[in-house]
Structures are given as structure tokens and as C-alpha cells.
Amino acid sequence: MTGYLDEEAQWILDVSRAAKARPLESGSPLEARIAYNAGSPALQGAREAVASVEDRQISGPNGPISVRIYRGIGTPSKDGPGLLYLHGGGWVIGNLDSHDEICRWFANLAECTVVCPDYRLAPEHKFPAGLTDCAATLAFMVQSATELGVDPKRLAVAGDSAGGNLAAVLALMARSVEAPQVAAQLLFYPNTDARQTTDGYRRYAEGFGLTATTMKWFRDHYVRTPADIMDWKVSPLLAETVAAVAPAFIATAGHDILVDEGMAYATRLQQGGVRVVARHWPGQIHGFVSMGRFMPAARQAVEDAVAAWRSFEGNPD
Length: 317
What we know:
Order of helices and strands: HHEEEHEHHEHEHHEHEH
Structural class: alpha/beta
EC number: 3.1.1.-
Radius of gyration: 18 Å
Number of domains: 1
Strand content: 15-25%
Helix content: 25-40%
InterPro entries: AB_hydrolase_3, AB_hydrolase_fold, GDXG_lipolytic_enzyme, Lipase_GDXG_HIS_AS, Lipase_GDXG_put_SER_AS
GO molecular function, one term: hydrolase activity
Distance between the termini: 37 Å
Number of strands: 8
Protein name: Acetyl esterase
Strand order of the largest sheet: 1-2-4-3-5-6-7-8
Largest sheet: 8 strands, mixed
CATH class: Alpha Beta
CATH superfamily: Alpha/Beta hydrolase fold, catalytic domain
Enzyme class: hydrolase
Oligomer: single chain
CATH topology: Rossmann fold
């Protein structure tokens, strides 16, 4: 038994089935990006107004990185909170537009500055190229803290799905010189175990949006060799220790092949002495936070993430 789907989630799945959309893995990565870019705007709600939005390029070890910088309404002009948001898409698809709605919500709800990088995608740029771009963007936020109006001690990382994977890995890296320190990690249905052996891959293999076949296609494009699957920078659940990592908010969806590994990571962090706020949406599907036009739970999830972030700072609502 998988339980009941929320009405909105069931409707999304029904529409998708009726459209008989071509599976992403049936074509090339470029074709998958074109299809995803064409469909994602229909799921996002109206663009919420923010104080400002700026597109620019920053420098990174792999070359220039395009980033989008949002300032929320009411954001302090200096020493405010900053958020690095990493978009989902299986490390293969997704861009600055596909997760624009979420970034705007975060900017306004948290009254913060959000920076979202258009990190390099696989398979043209396999692991760890995208991760390196994300780390470079976090370093940019620290180096440009005065210009951005942020306090380097108030930086958080966030992301959904593969972006949640990258955010979790950055939080682990931040314990050393590999990445700047972060104060919080906000993860929506993160990929934490690239072995793809949890029971969720059986229960929700087909019929709930993201399929097991698609997820394997994503992973196999991302990793260089099968050995990378066991690297904690691909599978953060396999890190030798999670001690001293930043407090975490972890959201999971009940009808999602990644649900078990998301919950397992929350448990692993808690057992390692890390403060965790875990939220579970039993009737939801993978990617629901990117479906704000139809899913009330989407904004609620971001609201809960912001509340958790504030509580980590000692300023609960």
C-alpha cells in the first residue's frame, strides 16, 4: 500500500498520463532539457515580485558561472541572511528559470538575498564539475558579502532533489576548507544515496512522476565511473561522519522514489547530533515544491523551511 495521493498530486499525474509525455530517458540530454524547459513554466505560479533581480556572471575554477541574485522585499541592506539555492533536475536538466518561483518565495519569506547558480550539467560536465561551480558560488557570496548585504555567518544552502544533494554535500564540505561555512541546510526531497537500492525505488518505480528508470539515467550521466556512486560527495548518506554539520531542514514526499533516502539522511544527521527539522508530505509526489501553480503544499514547504532556518538562528516565528 502506498496510501492516498493529495488531490492536486493525483490531478498532475492524471494530466501527465493523458498527455503521454515521452520519458526523458528515451532521448538525449539536450532533448530532455528542451522538454523540461517547455513544461516547467506551466507548473510554476505567477512570478512573485521581489525587491530586485539581477543576472550576472562570476568566476569559477571551471570558467564563468551565470548566477541570478534576488533581494527579497524587506531584506536588510547589510548583515542580512543569504541563501545559496541549487536547482533540481537530476544534475542533467534545470536552469535559472525552472526554479525562479522558489527563489522568489525564499527571498521574500526570509527577507534575504538568494543566489542561484546555473551550475554545469551532466553529461557534458560530469561529477564533480557542477558541485565545484556550487562551491565557487558559495565562496563568491562570502567574498562579496558587503556588496550583497549579507553576513557571512548567516549563509544557508538549499536545494531540491539533485540540488538538495548538492546542498547536503556542500554542508558536509563546509566543515573543512573545501567550502565556506554555512549556518543551515534546507533540503527538499534530496538525493542522498546514489546506490538507488532503497525500497522507495520499488514502491514508486512507476506512475508517480519521477521513475526509477529516469533516476538511473540521471545518475549514470552524472557519475564518471560506478566507483563515484560510493563517494560521499555523490552519496552524502555514505559520509564517514556527519558530526558538526549545519542544522538541517529536510522535506520529503510520501509518493517519491527518494523518500526513504531522504528520511534516512534525516535520521543519520539526528544520530550524529545534528539538529534536524523534518517535514513529511505523505500525499505528495517528487518535485511538488516546483508546482506552485497547482500545489498549495509547495509554498507551505518553503514557509516551513524558512521557519526552521529562523529557529536555527534563534529567531523562531
